[in-house]
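At this stage, I needed to go through a protein sequence along with its fold in token form, as given directly below:
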Amino acid sequence: MNRRRWLMGGLASTGIPAVTGHACLWDRDTLDQEAAKSPGYVAIITGRFPRNPDAYFEMRLERVTRELEMRPDDLNLYDDAGVSCDRLGRGDEAIAWMEKKLSRIEALASDRDVSEHRYRYLANLGTFEIHAWLRRDSVSIAYLNEAESARDHIASAIRLNPQAHFGREKFQFMAIDWVIRCVKKETDSHFFLDESPLYQAALGDLDLEDINPSRGIAGLVYLGNA
């Protein structure tokens, strides 16, 4: 069995694609989901919860694009557009929306508090990057810089807002870091919930909430896949 087949098979069996690829998405749907009561743990891990179809994201992208022509300083709209593209598998466009958002953040920074949107920019960008990397035909060393960039952006997002998603985002960082170490053949572990030396260096000084890993990951899967 080649290394890609082994790695992707292992990822599928552990649910890590959902954790790495969706966990830190931020748009207005995410805020609504967090405010609502989530499905039960069993329903989440077995996939028995509603999801929006592609048509929903296509229509939302069209609507948001029109709204941005009238309200280019509404930073929430850039998140909605980027997440819509990511859901549709259009990773390059999703990343481009974050570049546009960063440009508006910098332009508005002197007039308003944009710290929350800096966090969302980093969280979304990192998630879009790892999602695009996972869609590649190969997870070889040649493209590993894309995954490393995603990991770094997620770490930066957590440092700006350690308790976002109720402290669950650390599990996304752990999962991405584990995948990178697997590709580099730096670990033979089949368990990604360990605090690697890089985790300690990047986030070890933060007072992150101590939550049950299984429920934390289930929450990320739900927030990222509805």
Summary: Residues 126 and 153 are 5 Å apart (CA to CA). Residues 3-225 form a domain with the Serine Threonine Protein Phosphatase 5, Tetratricopeptide repeat fold (CATH 1.25.40). The chain has a mean pLDDT of 77.
